[in-house]
Amino acid sequence: MHKILIVEDEPAISRIVEKYLIQSNYECTIASDGFIALELFSKNSYDLILLDVMMPGIDGFKVLETIRETSDLPVIMLTARELEEDRLSGFTKGADDYVIKPFSPLELVKRVDVFIKRIYGSNEISIRNYGPFVLDDKEKTMRKNNEIIDLTSAEYLVISVLLEHKNQILTRNQIIETAFSLDYEGYDRTIDTYIKRIRSKIEDDPKKPKYLQTKYGAGYVFII
Amino acid sequence: MHKILIVEDEPAISRIVEKYLIQSNYECTIASDGFIALELFSKNSYDLILLDVMMPGIDGFKVLETIRETSDLPVIMLTARELEEDRLSGFTKGADDYVIKPFSPLELVKRVDVFIKRIYGSNEISIRNYGPFVLDDKEKTMRKNNEIIDLTSAEYLVISVLLEHKNQILTRNQIIETAFSLDYEGYDRTIDTYIKRIRSKIEDDPKKPKYLQTKYGAGYVFII
DNA sequence: CATTTTTGTCATATTGTTGCCATAATTCAC
DNA sequence: GTGAATTATGGCAACAATATGACAAAAATG
Questions:
Q1: Do B29 and B111 sit in the same domain of this protein?
Q2: Could you check whether the bond before residue B74 is cis, i.e. omega within 30 degrees of 0?
Q3: pTM here?
Q4: Cα–Cα dist A90/A86, whole Å
């Protein structure tokens, strides 16, 4: 099931959209302003974002801009008819599609379907987005900014766990138990070696890791 | 797969257009100005050109004029709304269609689809292009940079499957089942031998395969 | 039918992965 | 700063998977 983040300040609209998307088998989260949206975005992983342009506080464009700093996630903008220039504006700033209000919920769902199908394929979810990193569980491949990162299968398991709990500190044992197995008999410091190897593949400067950071005395975090 | 040349100076726009076209199974090349566009045009072969009118340096009309000296390739112009006369201008100078900015990427793709289908679509596809590799299913021949590569029929089947799923890891059994038959009774490691033989024919250095790569513990991928 | 080419299997050589360790470097608390 | 604790790193051995060359059976060729 694919996860959609709905960013919309009018509950009347977001509720309806949510209802339709749920009927179409999507999992929805509603953010009522840009701030909450960015907060949710940084902590969770979504497959598509519906983003209202006109919002109090941070507007849709600002939100999109921030999202685009780290992610290529598909974003559909919801714009008012009056703001015809929004179209261009939205595009030049990186939106993938736009829908003009007032829109038919069915139409919106159809657009979402098309996107999800095109990008993730109609089948089971196998692709996960984390900022510049994209994991394909079916292929067991990872990309950073669209470049394939060549990982061994054990490395893939480790980074997969770290990304699943991005921005959360995981102890070596948590990593081992989740990535490998609960009854893994090995030495927990072996994780250090995996971290070393993964860093050398994903970090620009493995000496000063930007993503895969150490928490002294605790474990490791994937910051994104 | 048909090749599209996108001539557009704003990366924000060309990137989105490219993304959509790739999703619709087109192969895209982006030229960020008229100069590069003409350079690429003279060195490669495309099936359709998307041409922005407003560009620094040589503008779209000039580019179109030059292209028309030697080619009848379909060209779709991308024009700004303000320049309404561009329409006429564009037509009189030989454009095949035009799209007014701001445009919906989905709409643009639809237009491209219509064109490609009208012009190239009626004939059967027996020729498949994958970068420097061209397969002719009718002739059962493969070319690399226009040079015929002499393959046996089993080798052709294997590479055909790999290219059909280029950039996807295929297990030995997937290759066997797709290339040969579902009830193939043989030993799956026989695929290794085919890979060896194909590599010796298509790779510059079979020891360090650039195209037909091994995924340790998984299978093989054709990277292109 | 004889000859050549293709196909599939196998044994062996080579390469890649994994987990561990010893030692170096870093971090933290005092 | 200093020392103790913790992490980083390079290397290595055991193991697992792949690459390769040789060969015989099967097909194709003429």
A1: yes
A2: no
A3: 0.57
A4: 6
Question: Strand D: which of residues 181-220 in chain A lie with Cβ below 7 A?
Answer: 189, 192-193, 195-196, 199, 206-207, 214-219
CATH code of the domain in which B192 resides = 1.10.10.10
> What does the alpha-carbon distance between residue A63 and residue B42 come to, in Å, rounded to a whole number?
42
Digit-coded pLDDT (tens) for A153-166: 999 999 999 998 88
Q: Which nucleotides of C are covered by protein (CB under 7 A)?
A: 5-11, 15-21, 27-28
**Do A133 and A103 fall within a single domain?**
no
Q: Are A4 and A47 in contact (CB under 8 A)?
A: yes
Domain containing residue B166: 127-222
Say if residue A137 is in the same domain as residue A209.
Answer: yes
Q: For residue B122, what pLDDT band results from cuts at 50, 70 and 90?
A: very low
Return the nearest residue to C18, CA–C1': A154
Tell me, what CATH number does B31's domain have? Answer: 3.40.50.2300
Report whether pLDDT(B11) > 50.
yes
B102 shares its domain with B205: no
Chain B, nearest residue to A154 by Cα: B217
Single-letter amino acid, residue B89: S
CB-strand contact A56/D, under 7 Å:
no
Q: Which tens digit of pLDDT belongs to each residue from A160-214?
A: 999 988 899 999 999 998 888 777 888 999 999 999 999 999 999 988 999 999 9
